[in-house]
Amino acid sequence: MTTPRLQTVAVLGAGGRMGLPMTRNLARAGLTVRAWNRTPEKADPLREDGVRVCASAAEAADGADVVLSMLSDADAVLAAVREDGVLDGPSVWLQMSTIGVAGTDACTALARERGIAFVDAPVLGTVQPAEAGTLVVLGSGPQAQREPLAPLLDAVGGRTLWTGEAGAGSRLKLVANAWLLAIVEGAAEALALAEGLELDGALLLEAVGGGPLDVPYLQSKGRGMLDREFAPAFTLAMAAKDAGLVDDAAGMAGLRLPMLRAIRERFDEGAQTHGERDLSATFLTSAPSPGSP
């Protein structure tokens, strides 16, 4: 039996920090791409890659084989796909946003109600791997959709890890984010402690460098903290949102995980002042103030 090809993709959220490079890579892979973004002008650069930029989500979905959602949160995703006509024509809804357990459950229920195949496939990676097409895709959903979606997923990711039934991908994304957030906050507080003890924080990076305590993310984010350079690869505001999803998931699972709760509170605090800077700017919440003893 010949597997039907999925050649036309409607990307909802095509002008976002992640959505823009992912959409561009889909077009450059030879797929027919239609793009919609809540702020239309942010998607305009995609026209140079032959992408049709649409005025509404429904226009983008009209005639598409796949609707791909890459938006900031569950409310934005559900608002977009509930627009009349968005889920009526396509055969697959590929949900790649980070929206947590409850958000994914709501999308799964909506897909079932509308009779459309639902594939939950959030990604690991930030803007640079999105631009390079080397994201890690955490796929989950019907076995029958995996082969047809392979060319699309290969266009945006360096590899795809299939994790089980729809929803497993989002749960794994939360687990991975818990680890990521712990590394960043741990680095921030360790380097703040170094400065508070009147040490050069670079000594920590050198002391653990290349050994069993070393982590590449510690080195890269730690150096940015020491240099007070916070150009956003992933903003603190978005990281705070994700920390909330992680903490909520722990509560839903009946787990008491105080470190994750503390990180959520710390990121929420930092995002009030430094939300549009890189998530490593959480360091500024802990670092000694200039002139402090």
How would you explain this protein's 3D organization?
With 293 residues, this protein is of the alpha/beta class. The chain folds into 2 domains: 8-164, NAD(P)-binding Rossmann-like Domain (Rossmann fold, 3-Layer(aba) Sandwich); 171-286, N-(1-d-carboxylethyl)-l-norvaline Dehydrogenase, domain 2 (Orthogonal Bundle). It is 48% helix and 13% strand. The chain is built from 12 helices and 9 strands. The chain has helices at 19-28, 57-61, 74-81, 100-114, 127-132, 146-156, 168-196, 202-208, 216-227, 236-252, 258-274, 283-286, and strands at 8-12, 32-36, 52-53, 66-69, 92-95, 117-120, 123-124, 135-139, 157-162. A 6-stranded parallel sheet has the order 3-2-1-4-5-6, with helices on both faces. A 3-stranded mixed sheet has the order 7-8-9. Helix 7 packs across helix 10 (236-252), helix 7 crosses helix 11 and helix 10 (236-252) packs antiparallel against helix 11 (258-274). It is elongated and about 65 Å long. The mean pLDDT is 95.
Assign the structural class, choosing from mainly alpha, mainly beta, alpha/beta, alpha+beta, or little secondary structure: alpha/beta
- Beta-strand share of residues: 5-15%
Give me the CATH fold name of the largest domain. Answer: Rossmann fold
Q: H/E series, N to C?
A: EHEEHEHEHEEHEHEHHHHHH
Q: Count the strands?
A: 9
**Low-confidence segments, ≥5 residues, pLDDT <50?**
none
Short description:
Helices cover 48% and strands 13% of the residues.
Task: Supply the key terms.
293 residues; alpha/beta; Rossmann fold; N-(1-d-carboxylethyl)-l-norvaline Dehydrogenase, domain 2; 6-stranded parallel β-sheet; 12 helices; 48% helix; elongated
